[in-house]
Design a protein that fits this description.
Strand content: 25-35%
Distance between the termini: 31 Å
Shape: globular
Mean pLDDT: 88
Radius of gyration: 22 Å
Low-confidence stretches: 1-19
Number of strands: 13
Number of domains: 2
Number of helices: 5
Structural class: alpha+beta
Helix content: 10-25%
Order of helices and strands: HEEEEEEEEEEEEEHHHH
C-alpha cells in the first residue's frame, strides 16, 4: 500500500523534531447536495505523543439547521485515524435513489492492521437524525462508478480475503468485488457486472505474465482464477492452471504448485467464488 501525501508529511514532520500546538494545522472540507451541507474538520501536526491527525469532527446541516455534530473515533480501538488517500474525504450524494442524499467519509485506519474504510450516514426522518454504517475496504480501497448507467453509483473494490493467502501481501492481488448501497446497507452485486469482472481478469492475467512476477505469480493467478469463477468460467480456469502446473509456469514460493492448486480450489469454494 502506498502512503498518502498526508501520511508522508506526518513522517517528515516527525523526523524534523517539530513540536507544540503551533505546529498544527486546522483543515476543513465541505460538501453539499440540495439542502444538505456537511463539514469535516480535523487537526494535523504535533500532538505531543504522536504526529498525525486528531480532533476529527463531522457536522451536518439540513435547511441550515444543525442535525449532526459528531466527534469521530477510530474504528479500531487504540489505532490512529487519518483522512484517506483521496484528495477529498467528505461527500454528499444520493447513493440509493430515494432522493435523500447520504453523507459519507473516506478514512484510513492507522496501526498494524490499517486499511481504508468508509462511514456512510443515512438520514432517518422518523428520528430526525443520522445513523451510520462503517464498511472496511482494506487495501483494495474502492472507486465510485455508475456501472449500469442508471444514475446511481456502485462501489468498485476487490476481495481483500485474497491478501496474503498465496504469497506475501506485497505480491498479492484480489478479484473484483462490487457493492451497491440500498436502505442503509451495502450489498455484494459483483456477479451482476460480468464485463467489469472480465476486464479485471484480463488485467490480472497480463500482470501474471509480466516480468514483475517472473519470480512468483501465485497471488496474481489466484486473483485471476477468482475473477474467472465469478463469471462462470471456474472449471476452465482451474484446468488452465493445472496445465500451467504441468508445464512449470506456476511460480510459488514456500509451497509446491500441486498443493497450491489444492489450496486455491478450497479457498475459492470457501469465499463463494466457486459454487
Amino acid at each position: 500500500m502506498k502512503l498518502g501525501s498526508l501520511a508522508c508529511a506526518a513522517i517528515a514532520l516527525l523526523a524534523s523534531g517539530a513540536g507544540g500546538t503551533a505546529n498544527r494545522r486546522h483543515i476543513v472540507e465541505t460538501a453539499a447536495a440540495g439542502n444538505v451541507h456537511a463539514r469535516f474538520s480535523y487537526d494535523y501536526g504535533d500532538f505531543g505523543s504522536y504526529v498525525g491527525h486528531g480532533n476529527q469532527r463531522l457536522t451536518v446541516r439540513r435547511h441550515g439547521f444543525l442535525v449532526l455534530n459528531a466527534r469521530l473515533r477510530p474504528h479500531w480501538h487504540g489505532d490512529g485515524m487519518w483522512p484517506g488517500f483521496h484528495q477529498r474525504h467528505v461527500f454528499v450524494q444520493d447513493l440509493d435513489g430515494d432522493h435523500e442524499p447520504e453523507v459519507f467519509l473516506d478514512l484510513l485506519q492507522g496501526g498494524a492492521h490499517g486499511g481504508e474504510y468508509s462511514v456512510i450516514y443515512r438520514y432517518v426522518r422518523s428520528r430526525r437524525t443520522y445513523r451510520f454504517r462503517t464498511h472496511i475496504w482494506w487495501d483494495p480501497g474502492y472507486r465510485l462508478r455508475d456501472l449500469h448507467h442508471g444514475g446511481l453509483p456502485e462501489f468498485v473494490s476487490g476481495d481483500h480475503r485474497f491478501m496474503g493467502q498465496f504469497t506475501d501481501e506485497a505480491d498479492s492481488s484480489w478479484p473484483a468485488q462490487i457493492w451497491r448501497y440500498r436502505d442503509g446497507w451495502l450489498f455484494d452485486v459483483t456477479r451482476r457486472f460480468p464485463e467489469t469482472v472480465r476486464r479485471d481478469a484480463l488485467r490480472e492475467w497480463r500482470w501474471a505474465s509480466s516480468s514483475r512476477y517472473r519470480r512468483e505469480n501465485a497471488g496474481i493467478l489466484a486473483a485471476w482464477a477468482g475473477d474467472e469463477c465469478l463469471v462462470g468460467r471456474c472449471a476452465s480456469a482451474l484446468s488452465r492452471l493445472d496445465a500451467f502446473r504441468r508445464s512449470g509456469r506456476i511460480r510459488v514460493i514456500g509451497d509446491t504448485p500441486k498443493h497450491y492448486l489444492l489450496h486455491l480450489r478450497r479457498f475459492l469454494r470457501q469465499t463463494g467464488c466457486l459454487r
